[in-house]
Every structure is written in structure tokens, then in C-alpha cells.
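Supplementary Note 3. Input sequence used for the single-chain structure prediction.
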Amino acid sequence: MQEETAIKQPAREPISSSEHSSPSTNSKEVDINISTQSTMDKPCTCGKEDCPSCNSEHGSKMFPRSYVYAIGKVVHRFPNKSLEMELAQATGRTPQEETRGQTREEALHKVITDPANRYIARQICYVLTIEGLETYILVPTDPLDIDRLAQALRPAPRADDIDVIIGLRGPIAPAEMCNGLMVPIVRIDQIYSFDRDTLMKAIPKRKGVSEDQYRKTADAVFNHIIKIADNAGATDEHRALNYLAVRYDEIYHRTQLMQDENYSFTAVEVRMSPLSGTRKIVDVIFSYENRANRATQKWFARVDVTEEFPFLVTPLQQYVGY
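The predicted structure, written as C-alpha cells, is reproduced below.
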């Protein structure tokens, strides 16, 4: 975080230390996944319904692309039986003392993150699930980022694991790409992996605020944002919301301050900002209702969503344009 937030960077990096930084990798191995990249990059002029680069529903020549800033959980799928059996054989080659007593997930994580088995990690399907639904197939822009996707498959998965995916949405995947799973491909440029506890601890608590109460407040706001209907992080509105949820701690502080004044957090909405012109800017408005007289206060922040990485334009302030 720079100016817009003071959230500290936790161990598994839910929040980047700079606005648009991309962590470097230590891996020296370079793998090129030709098939997935060609699916994303090559235009198609055949017009066939089963072509992954055509939009068969509307009959256009190219599937419309959009940026994605999504919050979900990365899971793996095998594209075919052959790779599944190859992983089983690789697990069998691992010394027993290294896997004895471990769960299936721990053994899987150990095998696919082993540099000797990177050829397996490179061919596995990485899928982002949102609210339990398989939403995107993930393809890294840089093949070296396969390591980061493999690491996102935790050795001890928990219900509160969170992955933030930033990238470009492409066409619907062909059936043969991921064993029949036909969801949009996202070519990812950045991934943050963390858990709910780490995120909440990374949000600095203001002096005099009960830690337990503040945690409940932050949890409630975060839940409200990620559970908004159809929040797949693909629209400008949802990208702005998801960006604020993991990168801007002031929305949590303001909610706690409003609760201290006997207000309840009731809604969040996103509108196109009057400042939009050559840039695409949205107003994210948080509504609070007084518990005694039902008077409403609104606070808003402006977010620029023109390109792939959203950023804060105007810090949170009271909204008077009712």
C-alpha cells in the first residue's frame, strides 16, 4: 500500500506493498504453454459455434474481452486421465518418509511444487471458484507464474482461504482444455493468496477500538462485498468493489466509526462518476442508517477502472449527492 492505505503486507501477500507491483520469481526454468496461449491470442474467422475464439451466442468474430479483478479460491482439475495417473506415479516416486502421515492435499501440494514435477504443474487446470462455483480457468501471462498458481493449492485448505485474481478475460474454454469444463479463460497478471485471518490482521486497528469488535465489523463489510449477487469481478462495478475490499482499509475504519455513532452499515452501490471522461471512474457509495431515527449517511470513494489495475482517485468522504 502507498498513500491510500496503511494495511500491512501479511505473510501470504493479500495486499501488495506497492500499488501495482508484481513480485519477481526466483525460478530459472522457463516453460511455454503453447496451447493455452494460442487459445487466448489468436483471432478466429471460422464462425463455428464450437470455436473457443468465437462468440457463438451473438455471432461475432471475437469473444468480447474484459478485465477481471476477482475474489475466490483456486482449485485444480485434471484435463485428462493421463495427467491424473502421472501425478499418482510422481507421488509414488516421492520417498515415503516425506509423505507418510500427510493428508491427500499435503501430499499433492508437495508433489506439484517440487521443481522435478513442474511438467505436471504446468499442465494441471487451475480453476477459480467463486462462492463454490467454477467461474474461470486460469492461464498465467508469464509461464513462470505457474509456480504461484501451484502454491495457491494450499497443503491444508480451509474454508476461509482467499485468492485475488487480476487479469484479462478471454473466450470460453474449449471442452478439451479442462476435461469438459467450459467457463471463461482468464489470463492472469497477478495473484494474491491469503486467508481471512491474515487479511483482517493486516488492517491496522485504530487506537481505542476493541479488537474483537473491529474484527466483526471488517468481516461484515468484506462478506457484504464478496456476496453481492453475480460478483465475478468482471464488471467495472465489481472490480472497484473488490479492489477496495482488499486494498483500502478506510472503508473498514469508517464503518466502525459509524457504528460507534449508532449507525448500521446497510448497503453499497457503484455509480459512474461525473468525473468520467477520457478515464472510466466510478463512485463507490457506502450507506449507513441511524438506528434511532433511520436518518441516512453516505460515504464514497472514487476508483479509476479504466485499465487492468484499478486505483483510488478520491479518498473516502461524505457523499451529498443523494
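The beta strands are 66-77, 125-130, 133-140, 161-172, 184-195, 263-272, 281-290, 296-304, 311-318. Residues 211-226 form the longest helix (16 residues).
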